[in-house]
Amino acid sequence: MKNKLNLFVVIIFLSFCFVIFYKGLNNPNTYSPKIKDKKNIPIFEAKDFNSSSYLNSEKIFEEDIFYIVNIWASWCVPCRTEHPLLMKLSKNHSVKLVGLNYKDSLNNAKNFINEFGNPYSQIIIDNDGTLSIEFGAYGVPETFIIDKNKMIIRKFIGPINQEILEQIKLIIK
Amino acid sequence: MKILKIFLIAFLCLSFSELKADENSDELKSKILKNIRCLICQGQSVYDSESEFASSIKLIVDRKINEGLKEDQIYNFLRGKYGDWVIYNPQLNKNTYVLWLLPLLLFLFGGVIIYKKKISNKKNKI
Fold first, then answer.
1. What is the ipTM of this complex?
2. I need a labelling partner for A68 at 20 to 30 A (CA). Which of A8, A135, B60, B119 fits?
């Protein structure tokens, strides 16, 4: 009787382990914690893409509207897939798009914009990636929604797709 | 000649103290970087990782040390941006109570079992 009970416990334990590991196989192997609280936008000074002059964050986000900060680079393949959606979004007048050009060559970035169009009202340069860290970014592409109180309220890691675009439209409505 | 010697000694002392300061900040930088998780290659610390994310974090940490921020202040800055997950050594808070207290509870539980067994063994012997 005792042996049977032991066997039963072992089988239950092994089945439990099997289920846990089997479920784990389908999970992505990178973990990214979700933002729960709203965060203030960082205070920074960055080089302007077009004029090479320096702009501060207050000047960039001065209007009382929603802003979308999109981190992009010409070498980033997923940035090309999301670009048409950003172009669509730029037609919405209740939001302004700010592009953060990440670790890129200026010439390549300009060619990218000339080829695919410019959805951004302002582009700033982040040559060493430190400005992206100030925003709490992981890499490219990444998109942040900034509300009228200058708080980061949402962050999307990876390229924007149609579903995310709809979410963004709902938020900025 | 004597004055020249004094100047030379003073100069050497000053240069060595500067070297020492650099050494200290390098040690602090390595210590901090080893305690930060690379969020792109999650099996590695930022110190070991060569990812774009890690190289930017290295620059940020260097900048913060030069700005005079203490180790804890730099960890708090990164926690503010990426949450507790980015630091390998998590702080005691409501999310990590189980993590910190469970080993202690298991240790106490095991201790109680061993103690009870010993007592019952003694009683059986008597």
1. 0.79
2. B60
Q: What secondary structure letter does DSSP report for A96? A: E
Is B40 in contact with A133 (CB distance < 8 Å)? Answer: no
Task: Give the model confidence (pLDDT) of A16-31 as tens digits.
Answer: 999 988 888 877 666 6
Of all residues in chain B, the one with the smallest CA distance to A29 is B42
Fold of B2-91: Helicase, Ruva Protein; domain 3 (1.10.8)
Domain spanning A39-172: CATH 3.40.640.10: no
Contact between residue A41 and residue A150 where contact means Cβ atoms under 8 Å apart: yes
> Is residue B31 within 8 Å of residue B71, measured between CB atoms?
yes
Give the closest of B51, B60, B83 to A33, CB-based: B83
Is B60's CB within 8 Å of A130's CB? yes
A142-146 and A151-157 as β-strands: parallel, antiparallel, unpaired? Answer: antiparallel
Q: Which of B51, B57, B84 sits opposite A133 (nearest CB)?
A: B57
Domain locations in chain A as residue ranges: 39-172
Model pTM greater than 0.90? no
Residue of B nearest to A104 (CA): B52
Task: Using CA coordinates, name the residue in chain B closest to A129.
Answer: B56
CB contacts of A135 in chain B (<8 Å) are 81
Summarize pLDDT for B6-49 with one digit per residue, the tens: 777 766 655 655 555 566 788 999 999 999 999 988 789 999 99
Find the DSSP H helices in B35-70. 52-66
Alpha-carbon distance values, A118 to A86, A115, A150 (Å):
9, 9, 23
Q: Domain map of chain B by residue range? A: 2-91, 94-126
Best A130, A134, A151, A152 residue to mutate vs chain B (most B CBs within 10 Å): A130
